[in-house]
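Archive transcription. Copying these from loose printouts into the bound notebook so they stop getting lost. Printout 1 of 2:
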Amino acid sequence: MKSIPTSYRSRVEIDARALTHNLRVFRKLVKNNVRVMVVVKSNAYGHGLVECAKLFSGRTATGGTTANVVDWLGVDDLDEALALRKSGIKLPLLVLGYTLPARYTEAAKSNISVTVSSIESLRHSLKIENRKLKIHLKLETGLNRQGITETELTEALKFLRTLEHVMLEGAYSHFAGDAPKFTKFSQKQSVSFNRMAKQIENALDRNVIKHIADTAATVLLPQSHLDMVRIGIGSYGLDPFSDPKLPIVKKLKLKPALSWYSIIAQVKSVKKGERVGYDLTEKLKRDSTLAIVPVGYWHGYPRSLSSKGEVLVRGRRCKVVGRVSMDMMTIDVTSVPGVKLGDVVTLIGKGLSAEGVATKAGTINYELVTRINPKLPRVYK
């Protein structure tokens, strides 16, 4: 039976070998001249920003090297990028989210590429001096989120040619939905993106790095690989559709890297008819053995799993009883023989997939793992 040190109430374990395996799987899916960007935004989808970036850049020996597998890393904001530069990461970095124009010079100083998705942001780059800011233009092709539209592109390029200290390094877009049912819409987006990218390269009279494929598109739409693919949640062995049946995970034989454990902090007997938790939301239908687990929604365990979540104790499924509190929850361990203080509780792991837990919580695996509190210790094996 698995045990965790008594100094931890809860911890996240990351299987470095699984991460290495997953990246090699994706590397084999693309041609040698196609770059691979691994997305480590939002604390590497809950897996730990700096440690994962070190592994992806080939600097960590645990589980084998990923050198020459990863070409770029993608982050959400400039602070994540700066944290990676401070930790010694030298791979090219692209900030995928919004960067405050006031920080463009800071990005340029650290050789960090930023996303520009509006003409207004381009205008702010006039203030950059004595540094060359590398940018990737985000193009609007159908998601209707970030992005310069096709009608705006001519004006944007005209203005861009006046900027001495800005170098257009790449252009990209994002699929609105790349499940098989969205294939026609994805193809329409691809056509729009390719047309806009050609306009950019004709205007500049040179090539730029073109990228639109995410994890799912890398697998299902090989024609979208272009110059670079962006592997996000698939890097961590999680399904891009958050489907409990794990279609992509099984298809590629990916290995989920993250497991989340806690311990039993108290065991008690409670009579039939007693109520449990805040607002007395659950009434026991039998004499029960209950256990307290010192994890709650502050740690990232969804409150929506109140009275319906399941965890594993000694290999047996145990139901969450009553409300999930801020820092603890109650589970029913009546069917677990020999249960005792300190027993390990699996929240996510073998036999309890992130996709399955997320579905029961009414959300997706992306949200579930990225909301695991970054203050929880992460142990890499």
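Printout 2 of 2:
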Amino acid sequence: LKGNYKGTITKTFTITAKSLTVPSSPTDKTYTGSVQTSRITCPSGSTTGGTTSAIDAGTYTQTCTLSSTTNYKWSDNTTTAKSITWKIKAKEVSVSWGSTTTFTYNGQPQAPTASATSGVTGETINVTRTTGTNAGSYTSTASISSVTGGRARKENYTLTGNTKAFTINKVAAGNPTLTAVTAT
């Protein structure tokens, strides 16, 4: 019977913070000229996350914040917010070089012609290239000078195959012409 007993027993116990898995970064994407979406799912016990949309090449960040630093912790034992990044990488386009790689000195800057393969639909990539003037061996380097149409941003593209060797030869000297001079 309850009346036959008396006393209290005290027991100490601990409630530990629940460990949450740190969200992993989503797969990087490549520039397409269209809106791209990345979804970060923060685990239950944390907030924010959600969906981020972007178009241009760059790095984007989303954050998961613990809803309570008393009741939750990350699996790495930290209680700070976790920033998760994802990227839209620049689209690679290749350079198409002209077939002429040997020139003769003419006193003017010379180099093989260069153009970039087309970008995404509606965008044209314009390139410039380094040149040489004097006789010798050179390497021309192409770079993006501008992008027209669409987003029109150079940062959305990167060039591959953007160097080309070429030579400017000396002018062949012709036989000198002698002119008779009459002296009095």
